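G., the chain you wanted modeled:
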Amino acid sequence: MAGPYDLQFRSEYRRLGFLMGQGDQEYGTALHRVCANAHSCWRVVPDAERPAVDCPESQIYRPWVGESYERTHLLVLGLNMNGAGGYDIMEGKDGVPRCKEELMHSNRILANPEYRGTYFEARMLACAWAVLLRTSPSEEYPLHTRDQILEAYHEPGHHMREALITGYDWIALTNVVKCSPMNTPNGSPTDEMCDLCPTHVLRREIEILRPQVILSLGGGAQKSVDTLRGSWRHINTIHPAAYGYRIDDAVATILGSQECV
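Predicted structure as tokens:
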């Protein structure tokens, strides 16, 4: 559903130098070479941890925008993509469509055969549903209670599982940092990336998406949102990949917490 926003994203990314060419000749540029903050963000990163100039991992990607996003205006923010990129990565075969398929049978996504998998997507969706129920309840949702969210999460293959996955349709999803080192644990961004990227790129994406609620995942994303300051309602939860993560506690806290900005 990024279509209604696509022209605005493309225009902004072209202005920043992240997209070049026209039509079939359009291509993404290497963020660690062309971004105005590239020197500051990448100066301490060794060559072995820099992506190849012509690989998708070095390029900008537009946010995922669900087909019903305009009815909720909930934007979910992670910290960084971790070894993936390219303009259409979110909507391509290895993006959200693949996540939807794999999530029907497991909470762990195995998109990369060299990676042990991630529970990020399933946990993110459960938390997003909790935020939706708390901030914009609707009879149109397929999930209406905490117990339904947790039942759909804990039992892959259950008839409620598809309901959990439809969460993608109601949200927009992206990250606060748009490029990160390669071949490092979790692709951790530098401090400079976390400080500079939100005000340089994310701010403009938020201006396009106009969210009413932002769900930030983890302390890094929370800090970035706090630096931007806006009229949105901000809810933060523990990062889905955090050690000792308990989805039941995360969902309960979102539904019952008053810790909103």
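Residues 191-209 form the longest helix (19 residues).

Shout if anything looks off.
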